[in-house]
Batch of 2 targets.
Target 1
Amino acid sequence: KQEVTQIPAALSVPEGENLVLNCSFTDSAIYNLQWFRQDPGKGLTSLLLIQSSQREQTSGRLNASLDKSSGRSTLYIAASQPGDSATYLCAVPYSGGGADGLTFGKGTHLIIQP
Amino acid sequence: GAGVSQSPSNKVTEKGKDVELRCDPISGHTALYWYRQSLGQGLEFLIYFQGNSAPDKSGLPSDRFSAERTGGSVSTLTIQRTQQEDSAVYLCASSLRSSGSLTDTQYFGPGTRLTVL
């Protein structure tokens, strides 16, 4: 059974800092890995999807890396802003090799202090 | 274009009653997913539809939970004889999967907050 762990569970940093969120998964036979953000009381917004054949993806100030062999992914946020405050979730396909539902980590609750 | 929509946004019900939650996926998306987010439990996969069929029902927590999808579009998640532990936010997502690709991004709706008294 796939299990996803995110570290840290919570993080509070001053505006402008660069930061790294970590995600690890137990079954490395995955097709992809996705990073989402969730704002309070709202649904999830997809940030980045990394294919299994890729090692990283970039979107603006966000960069996500994937190391399948070690079962790890990191989300790098450059020059953090108060608007980045949210819960960040990583997710991999539920059944490892399949791509039906997603298994999520419990998230990193991020607060960027103005 | 319109995103995934869900209704109702909030539902309060009494223990033992049945509830129906609705999901309207993004037009043209063939795959539809239901998840549950409970306080302290994180997001939990419930069921997946490809078209109108549900090849993966493994995440449904009990036989009180069922879901259907008609016309390859709208889906309804039904919970019978609700229990207090069913209280959660129920999220729906859809993805394109038009070519059978296994790597499409899932787009989420805002969720239905269910409270069972």
Target 2
Amino acid sequence: GAGVSQSPRYKVAKRGQDVALRCDPISGHVSLFWYQQALGQGPEFLTYFQNEAQLDKSGLPSDRFFAERPEGSVSTLKIQRTQQEDSAVYLCASTSRFATSGGTGELFFGEGSRLTVL
Amino acid sequence: AQTVTQSQPEMSVQEAETVTLSCTYDTSESDYYLFWYKQPPSRQMILVIRQEAYKQQNATENRFSVNFQKAAKSFSLKISDSQLGDAAMYFCAYRSAAGNNRKLIWGLGTSLAVNP
């Protein structure tokens, strides 16, 4: 696709429900990130994939959060037993590469999935 | 741990004028990258400009330029000839250049209004 696609754009869940948020990165992009952006805040890092490998999940706030990217393309962020504090916009970003030295690797972001937990 | 501070929650500028958004950061690292991102109401983050810490020359992209002061740990964004389409949230972000650390650390953002 032309850009990073996220679905659903809006999700309302009752407290305790499970939700799944999908991210379709730009075709061929190796690296994929999830960020959480609470209202009025900057994004906070959740997790990072390189191809299908989850290289960093240090930002996941609890074991209720789980992310996967089984074929190295589409990624799903799953939140189990949602709580009100999970209400936020979940941003997905992808990039084509990071050079061996790290590189600037411009990130391309989707429009985010806004989760509201009642 | 690294932190990024944006001390201006809101700014406004007249169309065609110049505005400067402030950003300071704290790090003990010597090699890193700094970014300014724009987030319009559609929520899609768009990269505005980036700076490699090892480069002394300030980055410029058309009407956007930065004032990078490494010793002071300051990274301000200057928008010249402001346009109505520049109205958005602007976020300053930091990324380490070390090893496999790929995550961005973000400030709280500055909301920029452009007045016609």
